Amino acid sequence: MSSIFSKRNMVIALIVLAFVIPFVLQNQYYLHILTLACIWSIAVYGLNLLAGFTGYLSLAHAGFFAIGAYSLGLLTVKAELSFWLAFLVAPIITMIIGTFVGIIALRTKEHFFAIYTLCVGYIIYLIIDKWDSLTGGVRGLIGIPSPANIGPISFDTPLSQYYFVLVVTLLCILMVYRIVHSLTGRTFIAIRNSEELALSLGISTAKNKLLSFVLSTFFAGVAGALYGSFIRFIGPEISYTTIMFDFLTYLIVGGIGTLSGPIVGTFLIVLLSQNLQFLQDYRMLIFGPLLTLLIIFSPRGIVGFVLTKYHQHQRKTSAVLKDARAKEG
């Protein structure tokens, strides 16, 4: 029975469910929401790589998300590049800007780093909002194309766009998984646990922190580019602090520093928000206390809570088996 519910089988089952669910729901509105949730989760994975595994909370993440979206929009609408070329270039532009920001930001630590990146995020918002000739200002950028056809494969329908975003989401999750389980990922975790100890072991913390920061901006850029191509209209509000704190909420609820936390938290909050639309602004009366209780009783979120209980159960089971074998001996 335990082999049936192994981690590998559960992952395969969830992937199959993700591909099958559009045919089960047969609802265009929910398909739209699921596509958006996939896009948000990519951005949250980037935030988790830096905040959860390296221990540096960047509050400029929504700004980099907007840079990815506007890079795709400007390259396709104003520069008239092909969609696929613009889609490849947009995250690279985001990473280049992220590198310059990270070099300065990572000279600070802890709450100073968070405050500095919050200021950077707001500056990005102001640039987008005020640079009317480039970004369109408050009017936004209209007419961003959807993904171009690849031979006989078209992306004109909501279903095809959902599958395109889903495939990119799965590739991004696989990338994060490989990063976290690599030597580089273990270095990030060592910096999170004790930067001084990592330094004493000969780890170049400055280089690895910058790498983590740049990788987080890459995922934000990918998510932003997907958002621009899916919605096809973007405005400065996508870089505002409310979006940043939405990302942070998804991460905290799902489980910061866990591999499945970003997607669990994002889908849970997004779907719950849509089902509580009738409450309008009063939704926060529900989310606020629930989030507070979650932070108090399970700082590592839902996934962290489940993993903790699972490990406790495993330790109890192994202790019982050990006692039983001792008695038999």
From TrEMBL:
It is found in: Cell membrane. The chain crosses the membrane at residues 9-25, 83-105, 112-128, 162-180, 210-235, 247-272, 284-307. Keywords: Cell membrane, Membrane, Transmembrane, Transmembrane helix. It is a multi-pass membrane protein. InterPro entries: ABC_transp_permease, LivM-like. One of its GO terms (cellular component) is plasma membrane. GO terms for molecular function: branched-chain amino acid transmembrane transporter activity. This is Branched-chain amino acid ABC transporter permease.
